[in-house]
Every structure is written in C-alpha cells, then in structure tokens.
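Action item from last week, closing it out:
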Amino acid sequence: MQFIFARKITLGLLCSTWAIAQAKAAADPTKIVGPESCGNCHKQEFTAWQQTHHYKTFEDLHRRPSAKVIADKMGVQRIKSEGACVQCHYTSQGTGAELKPIAGISCELCHGASKDWVRLHNVKAMQAKAKEAGWIAPDDVYALATNCFQCHTIPNEKLVNTSGHAAGSPIELVSWSQGEVRHHFMSGAKNVPNTPDRLRMLYVVGRVVDLEYSLRGVAKSTEKAVYAVNMAKRVVAAKEKVKAIFAVLPKDELKEIIATADGVALKLNNEAAITAAANKISEGAKKISSTYKGSDLAAVDPQIPPPSEYKGPVFHP
C-alpha cells in the first residue's frame, strides 16, 4: 500500500476547484428552475422526494446544533447563504448578489439545471437534444454517481480540518439510492424496485466512482491532518472493493482502473499525478457505464447490498 505524506504545506482554498467546476456543470444556478417545475409533471417523484432527508435539509440543517458548531468554527453566520454549506446542502438559484437557496438537495442537483431541457426531456424524439442541453438522464449512471460522490466525499480540506465536519459519508450507490431516495414511477403509480441489471450497473460504477473521487480528495490534501488521512484510507478501501469486483468480473476496464490506482503515490504535493489517475479512472467508469449491459455484470450479484441494507424507508403512495 502506498500511503506516503511528504510534508506540511499551507491550507488550500475553502472549496476545491475541481468540485466547484463539476457541481456548476451539473447545476448552474443561473439555469435552475426549481423542483416545483419538475413536480408539475413528475408528481409521484416529487412527492417521494418530499419524504427524504434531501428535501428536509432546507428546513432543518441550519437549526441543527452540530451544524451551528461547524458554522461557528468556519466563521459562517448564515448557514443557508454563506460558505461551503450552500454548495452541497442546498439548491441555489440566480446569480451574484441575487443567488439564493430555494430548496434542499433537489431534482436539478442530480439531473442537471433544467432551464434548457425541461421542455424537451419528456418527448422521446427530443431526448437526445435534452442530453446535449445538460439533462442527466437516469440511464447515465456515471454522471448521476458523480453528482452523489462530489458532495459525499466532502471536497473541502479546510472544512474538515478546522470544524470537525466529517471527511465524507460511507456512501454505496445501491444502498443509498434504493431506499428513501428511490423515485421509480415511470412504469406506473408504484415506486417499483429497480431491475437486477440496473442494480448491477449502479453497484459497479458506484464503486469505481468512489475510488475516483477519493483520489480527487487526496489530490487536494495539503497537510497531514484528518482530511488527508481519511481520504487516503478511503482510497485504500475503495480500491479493495473494486478488486473484489474484478475477482469475479475480470474486465479489461477494471484491470486498468486497479493498475492506475495502484500506480499512484498517495502523498502531499502530488496533485498532478493523483488527478491524472482519477481522470483515467473516470474514463474507465464512463466506458463501463456506456458500453456494458447490466446482464454483463451478473457475477457481482453476491456483492450487491440486499434491501435490508437500503438507507431509509422506500416511499409508497
């Protein structure tokens, strides 16, 4: 295991630039129309979302004592409108001084700011154009996964080291998306389970994206402290999960992903090399997501979490 930290250097910027760039690409606040616009057509999905922690954070995060402790340590007076809190915990709309949070973690933080595609995506003949305009469709598992992991890996060293904020969540894509977050109504009025093929793709791509984003966290680490140590440990754990998948699913893409992760040193002052490795792993994850079918991944079934491990209750109308 390569786990080397060379020397201390100064703390980085409040928000890491790679996370801001990716989050903005997915949810440009100037193009946010708001969850109610989605709910006009996706009524069941909207109702399911209203039962989730993603929805409730808008009303309760700033009231939590633990959040106030973190905010005080970061010099944040208004959790809903200042600092790094807004980046991950809220959906914001507008620009400049007019930028304001309008909801918790909502539709457009997962599926893309929708101003340019909201009138296109439900028309089958227009869905290609909708994707070109920024729609992240449910079949784009890689893009959906990155929107989860860019926040659940906490892309902010200073936040973790200064305030005691957790360095990340123990997110696994199947168990975290099939519980209270599930909103699968397209085939009817029931919030139906996803197919085994869908779960296989979520599991494999999710494990690879976990490795990718854990590496991105290490790349931005600047001092041997809680954040750097936890992100490096996360890389090691994520790599072992990918190796377990490769043991039953010996695909070339997974072999290259593992070799890439094994070949980069987890040390401070190695941002370029670690980021290059993460980018290469990203390409492998995209290839798996776009070229394989779930049926090609059936060998991983014993590794996929069962419903008893899903996070939160599934909403049923």
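Closing note: Residues 17-309 form one domain.
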